[in-house]
């Protein structure tokens, strides 16, 4: 339940990253702006406030994308939608690389905190509350929004940034599969708590957010179970993935691209035991990295 390029409008491309805006954003924007209380002297400021919110979100997502690239991953797409934004990143399957790719997003909001504090101080010193009340209100609201986004995103609830940071930290002692399972179980608890909050406040918005969290947790939980099954497979000695350094499973777990039958990629140097087709690339079942079978070296 995340937005994709389908149904999205291309806004611009910056640093090799395409930014898209989902069509549903316009519907929610109209609803939010029209129902927001009149706190400014002119409705134009409500529009600017909503646009500024998504500028902050976009900066947050660029933090994820650029950090992912810094550790050798790929990131070339960001989609904005009513629930915020999604940076499609593919970080190397290492806990440190994943941790930095996720943590860089909230760090953008951390950097913005003193920026807004400085602007608030400038507004106070210059008496903008009397001379420019709309500007003073605008700055204060954005400061509150940025801080709120930071706190909410750091909640240890998967798939929020806080939950993914927790998962990356748990990766060190528990491994890739167990860390994801623990994080998703905590995410289920957080999603159920959010449903309770939605019922308590009679908030449709909290209910939608809870549904988003729970659906993503369910998908990640199923993925963690698949990872656990892969982790328990017997391993072939003498080889390791160049990317994650994990030994490949011993057995016919690779499908031949020519005849379609499963075979053992490392039994005969990437040659299918049924049709004799040679495979120049193989996919690591643990991290998903693709490399020639010949570069898989001994983990010792």
Listing every helix as H and every strand as E from the N terminus to the C terminus, the arrangement reads EEHHEEHHHHHEEEE
Strand content range: 5-15%
- Strand order within the widest beta sheet: 1-2-3-4
Largest sheet: 4 strands, mixed
Total number of strands: 8
Task: Draw up the topology in text.
Layout: E1 8-14, E2 17-22, H1 24-35, H2 44-70, E3 74-81, E4 84-90, H3 95-125, H4 128-131, H5 133-153, H6 161-201, H7 204-231, E5 254-255, E6 262-263, E7 282-283, E8 290-291
Parallel strand pairs: 2-3
Antiparallel strand pairs: 1-2, 3-4, 5-6, 7-8
Helix pairs in contact: 2-3, 2-5, 3-5, 3-6, 6-7
Describe it for me?
It is a single chain. The chain has 300 residues and is an alpha+beta fold. 55% of the residues lie in helices and 12% in strands. It folds into 2 domains: 8-231, no CATH class; 237-300, no CATH class. The strands form 3 sheets. A 4-stranded mixed sheet has the order 1-2-3-4. A hairpin with a 6-residue loop joins strand 5 (254-255) and strand 6. It has helices spanning 24-35, 44-70, 95-125, 128-131, 133-153, 161-201, 204-231; strands spanning 8-14, 17-22, 74-81, 84-90, 254-255, 262-263, 282-283, 290-291. Helix 2 runs antiparallel to helix 3.
């Amino acid at each position: 339940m995340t937005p994709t390029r389908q149904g999205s409008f291309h806004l611009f491309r910056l640093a090799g990253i395409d930014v898209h805006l989902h069509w549903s954003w316009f519907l929610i924007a109209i609803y939010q702006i029209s129902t927001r209380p009149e706190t400014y002297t002119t409705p134009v400021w409500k529009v600017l406030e909503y646009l500024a919110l998504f500028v902050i979100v976009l900066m947050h997502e660029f933090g994820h994308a650029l950090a992912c690239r810094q550790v050798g991953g790929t990131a070339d797409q960001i989609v904005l939608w009513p629930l915020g934004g999604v940076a499609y990143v593919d970080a190397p399957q290492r806990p440190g690389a994943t941790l930095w790719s996720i943590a860089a997003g909230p760090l953008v909001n951390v950097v913005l905190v003193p920026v807004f504090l400085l602007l608030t101080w400038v507004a106070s010193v210059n008496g903008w509350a009397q001379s420019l009340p709309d500007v003073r209100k605008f700055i204060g609201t954005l400061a509150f929004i940025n801080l709120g986004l930071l706190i909410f995103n750091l909640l240890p609830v998967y798939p929020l940034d806080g939950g993914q940071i927790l998962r990356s930290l748990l990766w060190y002692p528990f491994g890739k599969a167990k860390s994801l399972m623990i994080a998703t179980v905590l995410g289920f608890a957080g999603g159920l708590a959010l449903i309770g909050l939605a019922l308590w406040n009679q908030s449709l918005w909290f209910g939608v957010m809870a549904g988003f969290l729970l659906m993503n947790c369910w998908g990640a939980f199923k993925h963690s179970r698949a990872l656990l099954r892969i982790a328990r497979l017997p391993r072939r000695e003498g080889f390791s993935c160049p990317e994650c350094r994990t030994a490949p499973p011993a057995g016919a777990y690779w499908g031949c691209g020519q005849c379609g039958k499963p075979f053992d990629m490392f039994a005969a140097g990437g040659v299918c035991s049924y049709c004799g087709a040679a495979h120049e690339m193989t996919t690591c079942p643990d991290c998903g990295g693709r490399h020639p079978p010949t570069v898989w070296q001994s983990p010792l």
